[in-house]
Design brief:
The complex is a heterodimer of chains A (about 350) and B (about 55). Chain A has 2 domains: about 120 residues, NAD(P)-binding Rossmann-like Domain (Rossmann fold); about 170 residues, Dihydrodipicolinate Reductase, domain 2. Chain A has 9 helices and 14 strands. A 7-stranded parallel β-sheet of chain A has the order 3-2-1-4-5-7-6, with helices on both faces. In chain A, strands 9-10-8-11-14-13-12 form a 7-stranded mixed β-sheet. In chain A, helix 1 packs across helix 9 and helix 5 runs parallel beside helix 7. Chain B is built from no helices and 5 strands. In chain B, the strands form 2 sheets. A 3-stranded antiparallel β-sheet of chain B has the order 3-4-5, with no helix packed on it. A two-stranded antiparallel ribbon of chain B has the order 1-2. The chains are: A alpha/beta (about 350), B mainly beta (about 55). At the A-B interface, helix 8 of A face loops of B.
């Protein structure tokens, strides 16, 4: 049994992480912090945790040493305190965007400001096990992943890994996202009257998660574009990537590539059914699970590939991957504490 | 036990003992319906599929 604490645990990410850690057989949650909810019981903010814990939100200044420290603060904060946090724990998993990019200039390009701790960037491993499993096993510092980036990266992974894409083909990725991606702070756009029933493209291009796709997929920035559309969901993200495959690639080649990725990764599944209702990946049935469902369709007449990835943005796109990373870092079964299969119907 | 290759996704499928010609089996990988058209050697072909017509 190890000890773990969460800094910044009153948000949706922090609450989801706490849910997972409270049920994890090898983790004792020691402290959870929140300045805005200091002294309150955590179930007063995260009502699903009622009767599961009597923890109260602590002051970040009163943190005690632990084995693993999770950072779930808004972006831009962890980089200012990382040296202090490293004194509290030998292992850190940061869910924010602060340490996802390896290059300080690249960070500045996409986040519009200089990184406060550039010397730490190379010490972090990007926290997506499907891409960095072996590095994560020996890592001390692990970054989080962007939810939209995760859906995009996993939609592209079989195509990139098997080198099936036409190298000159642009890659356009449309991502439909649920409202929990916006976090618990809220703004006028998250009022029910404004958010309900929407299909709203809020970022046509230039979203910051694009940087993670460029970095992790190794594609040229001029070749890839992400478009984000808010839909009437609370949880969930669906990435639909459009590109061209190399000449001669047929459906069976794609099956081989997708099947290989699914076989190598316990939380990746191929969904390409010929019967029933759920024939393609859908976020709906993934709520609360760590699965990433992949699917594809190929127009063999012109090489147009449509590759899809559905996830729960708070799970595979954030906290589920973070716990999976912790499991790898600790040398445990990477699926430990992430066994929830989801609900149907939901 | 005979093995066939799915014509849709190239998965290897084991035919159960007692499988008969004309029987419809399902590929465990891609879920496509396959009709057994021969047993020695075993061979399958795609069976007619039910199309989804949402939005049409």
């Amino acid at each position: 049994m190890i000890t773990a604490s969460i800094i910044g645990s009153s948000g949706y990410g922090g609450g989801e992480l706490l849910r997972l850690l409270l049920a994890h057989p090898c983790v004792e949650v020691k402290q959870v912090t929140s300045r805005s909810h200091l002294g309150e019981y955590v179930y007063q903010v995260h009502p699903n945790l009622r009767k599961r814990t009597q923890l109260k939100f602590s002051d970040p200044a009163a943190l005690e040493p632990v084995d693993v420290l999770f950072l779930a603060q808004p972006h831009g904060q962890a980089q200012h305190h990382i040296a202090e946090y490293a004194k509290l724990a030998p292992r850190i998993v940061d869910l924010s965007a602060d340490f996802r990019l390896r290059d300080a200039a690249f960070y500045e390009q996409w986040y519009g400001e200089k990184h406060a701790a550039p010397e730490w960037l190379s010490r972090f491993v990007y926290g997506l096990p499907e891409l960095h499993r072996e590095e994560l096993k020996s890592a001390s510092y692990i970054s989080g992943v962007g939810c939209n980036a995760t859906a995009s990266n996993l939609a592209l992974l079989p195509l990139i890994k098997s080198d099936l894409l036409d190298p000159l083909s642009p890659i356009f990725i449309e991502i439909k996202v649920g409202s929990s991606e916006g976090g618990a702070e809220g703004n006028s756009g998250s009022l029910h009257a404004e958010r309900a029933n929407v299909i709203r493209t809020f970022s046509a291009f230039g979203h910051r998660h694009t940087a993670e796709v460029i970095q992790e997929m190794g594609v040229n920035a001029s070749r890839v574009s992400l478009t984000m559309t808010a839909v009437d969901l609370v949880r969930g993200a669906l990435a639909t990537a459009h590109a061209k495959v190399k000449q001669g690639v047929v459906t069976k080649d794609l099956w081989k590539a997708y099947r290989a990725v699914a076989n190598e990764n316990p939380f990746v599944r191929v969904v390409k059914e010929q019967r029933g209702i759920y024939r393609v990946p859908e976020p709906k049935i993934l709520a609360g699970t760590n699965y990433a469902d992949l699917g594809f369709e190929l127009d063999e007449s012109n090489g147009h590939i449509v590759s899809m990835c559905a996830i729960d943005n708070l799970m595979k796109g954030a906290c589920g991957s973070a716990v999976q990373c912790m499991n790898l870092m600790m040398g445990w079964d990477e699926a430990m504490g992430l066994e929830f299969m989801g609900l149907h119907p939901i | 036990m005979s093995t066939v290759t799915c014509p849709e996704c190239a998965a290897e499928i084991n035919l159960e003992e007692g499988t008969e010609i004309g029987e419809i089996i399902v590929c465990s990988d891609c879920g496509v319906d396959l009709e057994v058209i021969a047993l020695n050697p075993a061979s399958v072909q795609l069976a007619p599929r039910e199309e989804e017509d949402w939005g049409e």
